[in-house]
Amino acid sequence: MVKALLSALLVLVAMSSTFGKYIPKTGKRIPQTLSRGWGDQLIWAQTYEEGLYWSRSRNKPLMVLFHLEDCPHSQALRKLFSEDNEIQRTLDEDFIVLNLVYETTDKHLSPDGQYVPRIIFVDPTMTVRADIVGRYSNRMYAYEPSDLKLLLGNMKKAKKLLKSEL
To answer: Which keywords does the record carry (predicted)?
Structure first.
């Protein structure tokens, strides 16, 4: 009886570990402080210029995420964003990622104002994808926790546009 219970427990533990957080193909990575909680297993660019360089050299779109540490909207989005395995996998495999807690001097990254959270896509030719927007007309690049499916769709759109334009 004890052996059967231990066997069942072992099977349950093994199964539950397969449903955990996303782990990249290259194995678990050491968490970076650059993630700021948005995805510790992702490799984050340090600056906008570095993100543009990586985007161009690796031929991947750049996703720039503007947020503030103490903003409740940013915190709510960060929690769900970091727990969504499909978003984390897509970012890891197909994007260069950068998160900023400050504004850049590039006015193309704030086409409709400076607010947070805001997500902008930039293609490898360094063109800001102003056509990839969220669901709000007054904050075109804002996303809320309920908008994760839209964000994932926009990420796929950024990849698809990249492939069809190059």
So the answer is: Endoplasmic reticulum, Secreted, Signal
